[in-house]
Design goal:
Radius of gyration of chain B: 19 Å
Strand content of chain A: 25-35%
Order of helices and strands of chain B: EEHEEEHEEHEEEEHEEEHEEHHHEH
Distance between the termini of chain B: 42 Å
Number of strands of chain B: 17
Shape of chain A: globular
Structural class of chain A: alpha+beta
Structural class of chain B: alpha+beta
Strand order of the largest sheet of chain A: 5-1-6
Oligomer: heterodimer
Radius of gyration of chain A: 12 Å
Distance between the termini of chain A: 11 Å
Shape of chain B: globular
Order of helices and strands of chain A: EEEEHEHHE
Number of strands of chain A: 6
Largest sheet of chain A: 3 strands, antiparallel
Number of domains of chain B: 2
Chain lengths: ~90, ~280
């Protein structure tokens, strides 16, 4: 199971209405919009920001996606410098 | 000739005299700006030959010509599009969103929309019905306050909406209709005076509404969640990518403060009633 944290040059905005998270990467200049498919996201987002570290399982749970989609998403988020692996 | 749009001033050189009366009919009541012009622009023939043979004009900002030449008859429309281009590609001190902006009771509503959505017809209708027109084309948003500023520009009407708006408001000032442009037939409506414009101040955005005209449709109102609005608003911002993190934070601020809707409408009076009764406090 991979652990991640936000890239130091990425910003995140957690939606007040629990609809999801918007991310922006200053390195790639891209935005990502992660739609909340699961109430767990809302529960974990109480502080209105992403947790300092989170796992693949957390992401899968927030977004309610299968393993294949999760793998694609993790790779894309890492490649575009939204998140980095946390050792 | 200097065109003062309030926030920006353009020093315009026109090689063709027929543009000047139209410029004066739209901007002639504006007072000269207190500052030097922000943009040096020119509408002129792209070559000597094209002055006489199937006459064409090009738009120039400094020495740069960003568009293909157009027939001489479309010179004024080209000037307006060129002015939009100047603002959208040069002002990165504010967030610029492709949207109409209308204000009532010091509360601004922005209407980001794709071409063909009925945005300009709606804008003309509201502007001629007591709302303050801040822009038909571009929401200009301060990066600190999040307030939207007014711009002194006409409304660009297309195709069937030209005759419709002329029927509704026959006393208004319209330019000629420029036929067969790449946007179809186009005419500009002077929807406010300079006297009205100078009363308009930077204003808080209370709603972001994505309009869509559907012929013969009843008014349908859909509440948007913040993530949908964030994505759509950022895609409609001309300089979101240039502003980077500043643009991201400003879009976040707007969608968390404003009411967010998508509407489908067939009648403009239904939209006005919805805005006046349910959005403007």
């Amino acid at each position: 199971m991979n652990k991640y944290r936000l890239h130091p040059k990425a910003s995140n905005a957690v939606m007040d209405d629990e609809s999801g998270i918007a991310l922006y990467s200053e390195c790639s200049g891209r935005s990502a919009f992660l739609k909340n498919q699961h109430q767990k996201l809302a529960i974990e987002m109480v502080s209105n920001k992403l947790p300092d570290t989170f796992s693949s399982i957390d992401m899968q749970s927030w977004l309610n996606i299968d393993n294949e989609e999760l793998l694609k998403l993790e790779n894309w988020l890492v490649e575009n410098r939204f998140i980095v692996k946390h050792s | 000739m200097v065109v003062n749009t309030g926030l920006y001033a353009f020093n315009v050189t026109c090689a063709h005299r027929q543009i000047t009366p139209t410029v004066n009919s739209i901007y002639g009541d504006a007072t000269p700006p207190n500052t030097p012009a922000d943009f040096e622009i020119k509408v002129a023939s792209p070559s000597f030959t094209r002055r006489f043979f199937r006459p064409q004009v090009s738009f120039y900002c400094d020495q740069h010509s960003p568009f293909k030449p157009l027939p001489l008859a479309q010179a004024y429309a080209l000037l307006e599009w060129g002015m939009n281009w100047c603002i959208a590609t040069h002002d990165h001190t504010r967030l610029l969103v492709h949207a109409a902006v209308l204000v009532k009771n010091n509360q601004a509503i922005i209407f980001p929309a794709a071409p063909g959505s009925g945005k300009s017809t709606l804008t003309a209708y509201l502007a001629m019905s007591g709302w303050n027109l801040y822009s038909d084309e571009m929401a200009i948003i301060d990066l600190e306050s999040g307030f939207v500023s007014p711009l002194y520009r006409p409304v660009c009407l297309k195709n069937n909406s030209i005759d419709l708006v002329k029927q509704w408001f026959p006393e208004s000032v319209f330019t000629s209709t420029w036929k067969d442009t790449h946007k179809g037939d186009v005419a500009h409506l002077k929807a406010s005076s300079w006297k009205q414009y100078i009363q308009c101040k930077p204003t808080e955005i209370v709603a972001v509404i994505f309009p869509k005209f559907v012929a013969n449709s009843d008014l349908k109102i859909y509440s948007l969640d913040q993530l949908q609005a964030f994505e759509t608003l950022s895609k409609n911002a001309f300089n979101y990518g240039v502003l980077g993190n500043l643009g991201f934070k400003m879009v976040d601020k707007i969608i968390k403060r404003a009411a967010l809707f998508e509407i489908e409408f067939g009648e403009l009076c239904d939209v006005q009633a919805f805005l006046s009764e349910d959005i403007i406090r």
